[in-house]
Amino acid sequence: MKNFNVRILSNEPVADDVFRLTLEAPELAKTARAGQFVQVKVSDEFTLRRPLGIASTAGGRVKIFYRVVGRGTEALTKKIVGDWLSVLGALGNGFDNPSGKVLLVGGGMGLAPLLCAAENFLADVLIGGRTKAEVLFWQNEFAPHVEKFFITTDDGSYAKKGFAIDLLPEVLSAENYSAVYTCGPEVMMRGVAKLAMNNNLPCQVSFEKRMACGLGACLSCSIDTTDGRKKVCKDGPVFDAAKVFGGDDVG
Ligand SMILES: Cc1cc2nc3c(=O)[nH]c(=O)nc-3n(C[C@H](O)[C@H](O)[C@H](O)COP(=O)(O)OP(=O)(O)OC[C@H]3O[C@@H](n4cnc5c(N)ncnc54)[C@H](O)[C@@H]3O)c2cc1C
Ligand code: FES
Predict the structure, then answer these.
(1) Is 10 domain-assigned?
(2) Are residues 134 and 41 in the same domain?
(3) Which of 38, 39, 93, 221 to mutate to test ligand 2, by most ligand atoms within 8 A of the CB atom?
(4) What is the pTM of this model?
């Protein structure tokens, strides 16, 4: 893990309140693994860095997708092409290299780290979102990297109406996946983990917790696992689903 000063190549809105940030970062791109994240120093105004998932490392560039939720991400939208950004990474562990085709299941901004997995592994993706606008840009981002995509929208404005978890049994029965990787709202990941385990498939979940140091020093991101207390920033953010949700009480 290193601190990189990287140049912003683009920082543009791609959907409601969602921005795509592209950084010229060849050294970081070369070493980062799918599922890892960076700590971004937005400006001197903010003491704490903001953790953001690595969504792509292709061509020596690191791509990040972020939703504007508070002061830090709002300030990030003001950065322009040519500005420099201090980025600490790559942090955390990342997804395992799967032995065969993997099914990626994501909701909302949880799709960002899964995009990097699609870039690196043989994969299909199941995208869940609230509306057509929310899922369309993800569909475009994933399209060059996956064999098949499956899409649900909560409001039925595009593709199948319902939640990703509703479509999952059908998707799992149609193909022999080697594993399921998921990231998104915790309730979705729990449901995905349960179905994957019921189908005897290994499942890895990528967790989000409020972070301060991002380096394993402050304990603010601890979670309980079957192996005891773990830090999401250092021991995760990717965990074996059975260890974080427990075998039998999943769902
Ligand atoms: C490993 C990891 C990967 C992430 N990847 C992405 C991503 O790819 N895209 C994306 O849009 N968001 C991602 N997040 C969430 C993102 O970090 C927060 O939305 C962001 O820090 C909010 O900052 P803010 O200043 O705008 O909001 P505020 O609410 O003003 O933030 C206040 C403080 O709380 C922290 N904080 C707030 N929400 C979160 C959160 N959900 N997780 C961790 N810290 C938080 C901030 O870092 C800051 O220190 C990720 C979080 C983690 C832990
Ligand atoms: S954020 Fe400090 S230990 Fe994880």
Answers:
(1) yes
(2) no
(3) 221
(4) 0.94
- The gap between the terminal CA atoms of the chain, to the nearest Å, is 35
Contacts of 230 (CB under 8 A, 6+ apart): 222, 223, 224, 236, 239
Q: Specify whether the CB–CB gap between 222 and 229 falls below 8 A.
A: yes
Total domains present in the chain = 2
Smallest CA separation from ligand 1 atom 1, residue: 208
Q: Which of 129, 141, 115 is nearest to 57 (CA)?
A: 115
| Ligand 2 pocket, residues with Cβ under 6 angstroms | 211-214, 216-221, 231, 233
36 within some domain = yes
CATH of the domain at 233: 3.40.50.80
117, 204: one domain: yes
Please write the tens of the pLDDT for every residue from 227-236. 999 999 999 9
Residue type, 203: C
* Residue 62 pLDDT > 70: yes
Contact assessment for residue 250 and residue 186, using Cβ atoms and an 8 Å cutoff? no
Q: Print the domain residue range for 27.
A: 2-91
